[in-house]
Amino acid sequence: MITTAEQSPPVRVRFAPSPTGFLHVGSARSALFNWLYARHTGGTMLLRIEDTDTDRSNPELIDMIFRTLEWLGIDWDEEPEHQSRRADRYRAATDELLASGRAYRCDCTRDQIDARAAERGGKPGYDGFCRDRGVAAGPGVVVRFRTPDDGVTAFTDLIRGDVTFPNSDLEDFVIVRANGDAMFLVANAVDDADMGITHVLRGEDLLNVTPKVLLLRHALGHTEDPVFAHLPLIVNEQRKKLSKRRDDVALEDYIARGYLSEAVVNYLATLGWGPPDGVEIRPIAEIIELFDLTQVVSSSAFFDLKKLDHFNAEYIRALAVEDFIERSQRWLLADDAPWPADRYDPAVFAAMAPLVQERVRTLAEVPGYVDFLFLAEPVVDDKSWQKVMVKGHDTAVLMLDAMVDRFATCDWTGAGIEDALFGFGDAQGIKRGQAQAPIRVATTGRSVGPPLLESLELLGRDTTLTRVRAARAALGAT
RNA sequence: GCCCCCAUCGUCCAGUGGCCUAGGACGCCGCCCUUUCAAGGCGGUAACACGGGUUCGAAUCCCGUUGGGGGUACCA
User: Fold this and answer.
1) Angle between helices A432-444 and A452-459 (to 10 degrees)
2) Spatial separation of the C-alpha atoms in residues A208 and A185, rounded to whole Å
3) Of A88, A145, A159, A249, which residue is 20 to 30 A from A357 by alpha carbon distance?
4) What is the rounded CA–CA span in Å between residue A224 and residue A181?
5) CA-based nearest residue to A315, from A358, A279, A278, A276
6) Is the ipTM value over 0.85, yes or no?
């Protein structure tokens, strides 16, 4: 029996970043959806570096993009294509267009174009002035595509349905710059055809470019159109497209801020799409299996850092402890770690790790939970001190005084410390939350942190006593 | 201005004409648990932009309005 799936040609998709900056969150999402679609359908995932604008491209950034895609777990199937190496193909295409009369040379300056537009009544755009002037090649001369005067260019978008553009709204756009370089649209049309791309999945910001690419493809003799799917934009709280200027869009920054690639990818997958059973956090293999391009929503999605944090915390907690320790190294051993490198003790951190793991949302928060163990003296948080030591002065004095004695002689084990601390506090009728607070602030500097008994045990009797005495002394007589 | 796209809780998704007194998740609020904070458990807050149609019946279909966004380069 022949199914429609078997009749369709194998899926070939591509991610086509332009190396003019780091990998952008929006680009990463496009890459991810292309990849999900390819893996779901058993198709082919291709990469194409759109570096035709040589002035703005940078080879190092290309490598950076590859590495970030790898970090995300997005792989590709064939050697990446580079548009900078295909200039001859674009030249052949534009020559063909020139020869067939579908394109012509133009020597109008921007000012002339604008002046004529103003004369016409403010309607901006090129007016086809040079269409039949027979302009010869030369300095300052570009090549423009002659768009049809009437009719429409339409296509069916997998996400948006039928989209139609009247050809009369399309101006004669530039396809070759004065310096001889082909423009993005030409490269796009030629490459997608040469690479046998069957599905073009990209951001909605490229939607209006589609009729131009289609016109170019048709003029070049390609009668089969690829299937298009324009993904909803990822926006900021102002509902505007994420911008490099005012938003955190560099994926590299999320790595540095302690996000796990699994969490980032999983979160990105929920922007514009959701699994049918509503389970958002799940292994990538399941996402691949469930992914359905036709179910992608058409409205833009807000990049919600709070929700990403939640995903990340879930993924951190799901890590094996050894993995958590391993992945935390980068922040523990960093130059800007809060303690002198020689005071850091891996064994002490390992003992504390399980308790830290279930509390952090990002790996970057890890040092803040254990700094008191590796610092000569705790960093005192002023708000905590005010609340516990000043506002709760009497209880603080009582507990501190008692622990100076009891900690000196009790068993230095979790149970021993517990007995010393709460045995006294309970007898005094002090709630445990109140009883532990002064000791916590005295030894760790803060009123929040990992469980106290384990913390003190690792801190050691001597250091604990030193800090308790110092805090008591800071409170003055009585 | 013109072209194109979009419109369900604050946010991300469910919902594809009756199962919706609209469901889940994040956030937020409360309670429980508890040595702090987390985690966990329980409960709560909160939405179909508006107006016309079509239909026995509309969050779901159509039209309009309003609102938002994207694009309007010799960038991609």
Assistant:
1) 30
2) 12
3) A249
4) 26
5) A358
6) yes
CA A181 – CA A185 distance, rounded (Å) = 12
Residue A313 φ/ψ, nearest 5 degrees: -60, -40
Q: Are A101 and A59 in contact (CB under 8 A)?
A: no
Q: Is the dihedral of CA A356, A357, A360, A366 positive or negative?
A: positive
- State whether the beta carbon of A142 lies below 7 angstroms from any atom of strand B: yes
Nearest nucleotide to the CA of A446, by C1', is B36
Long-range contacts at A455-463 (CB < 8 A, ≥ 24 apart) = A455/A352, A455/A372, A455/A373, A456/A417, A457/A412, A457/A413, A457/A414, A457/A417, A458/A348, A458/A351, A458/A352, A458/A373, A459/A372, A459/A373, A460/A412, A461/A407, A461/A408, A461/A412
Q: Quick check: is A387 catalytic?
A: no
Q: Which nucleotide is nearest to A384 (CA to C1')?
A: B36
At A56 the pLDDT is 61
pLDDT at A50 > cutoff 50: yes
pLDDT at A378: 97
Residues 34-53 of A with CB under 7 A from strand B: 50, 52-53
Nearest-angstrom CA–CA distance, A2 and A5: 8
pLDDT (average), residues A330-342: 94
Positive or negative: CA dihedral A201, A205, A206, A210: positive
Q: Is pLDDT at A1 greater than 50 in this prediction?
A: no
- Supply the pLDDT for residue A181: 93
3-class DSSP assignment, residue A46:
strand
Torsion of Cα atoms, A234 then A240 then A242 then A245, to 10°: 180
- Residue for token digits 């570009």? A142
Distance CA A453, CA A84 (A): 62
Residue A162 (CA) to nucleotide B4 (C1'), in angstroms, measures: 12
Please tell me chain A's helix, strand, coil percentages from 3-state DSSP, rounded to the nearest 5: 50, 10, 35
Task: State residue A4's pLDDT score.
Answer: 46
pLDDT in tens, A108-141: 999 999 999 888 877 788 999 999 999 999 999 9
Can you read off the two tokens belonging to residue A317?
A: 């907690």
Residues of A (451-470) placing their beta carbon closer than 7 angstroms to any atom of strand B are 451-454
**Strand B reaches within 7 A of the A476 CB:** no
| Confidence label for A59 from pLDDT (cuts 50, 70 and 90) | confident
Burial status of residue A342 (CB atoms within 10 A of its CB: 0-12, 13-18, 19 or more): exposed
Q: What global pTM score does this model have?
A: 0.94
Other beta carbons within 10 angstroms of residue A79's beta carbon come to 8
